[in-house]
Design a protein that fits this description.
mainly alpha, HTH-type transcriptional repressor NicR, WH_DNA-bd_sf, HTH_MarR-typ
Length: 170
């Protein structure tokens, strides 16, 4: 017996919610183990992709500029990040993970990354591409709805469909 498309979508939705909660709990546990708050963790996550400006960190963490400066100062004192001149524009300062910061992030997340590679080992390249596409679209969807919640009445809020999906504006 095969599940209907709706049953399959409902099941996938429940799995995605469970996965999201699991990731949040893991990130919370990592933050507690490192003595970091959620904004600190978001900053380290942002910087794990490479150096960023304070403005980019503010966007990633949802903090105002003054709070972002305090966050960078706090992580600098702990030896996890450092300010460095931009190679492209000497007026611009970038923030990057220090070796210590990279080590601490990898100690926390590395084992899961390595084990995750094993999970993907059974998937074909086409399966991985399809999964990546779905996750990219889900991320875009989540970002649109984050903007809707953060900026009620903005463009994102006006384009949201009703739960019935009839296209009427909320």
């Amino acid at each position: 017996m095969t599940a209907s498309r709706q049953e399959a979508m409902d099941h996938a939705g429940r799995i995605l919610q469970r996965y999201q909660r699991s990731v949040q709990r893991f990130d919370d546990a990592v933050g507690r183990s490192l003595g970091l708050n959620m904004a600190d963790m978001r900053c380290l996550d942002c910087l794990s992709e490479g150096p960023h400006s304070a403005g980019e960190i503010a966007d990633a963490t949802g903090l105002r500029p003054a709070a972002t400066t305090a966050l960078i100062d706090r992580l600098t004192v702990r030896g996890l990040v450092r300010r460095t001149p931009s190679p492209d524009d000497r007026r611009r300062v970038l923030v990057e993970l220090t070796e210590e910061g990279q080590t601490r992030v990898w100690e926390a997340y590395g084992p899961m990354v390595e084990e995750g590679a094993v999970v993907f080992g059974d998937l074909s390249a086409d399966d991985i591409i399809a999964l990546s596409s779905v996750l990219e679209r889900m991320t875009e969807l989540t970002e649109r709805h984050r903007a809707r919640v953060e900026h009620p009445g903005g463009r994102a809020a006006r384009s949201t469909r009703t739960p019935a999906g009839d296209g009427s504006l909320e």
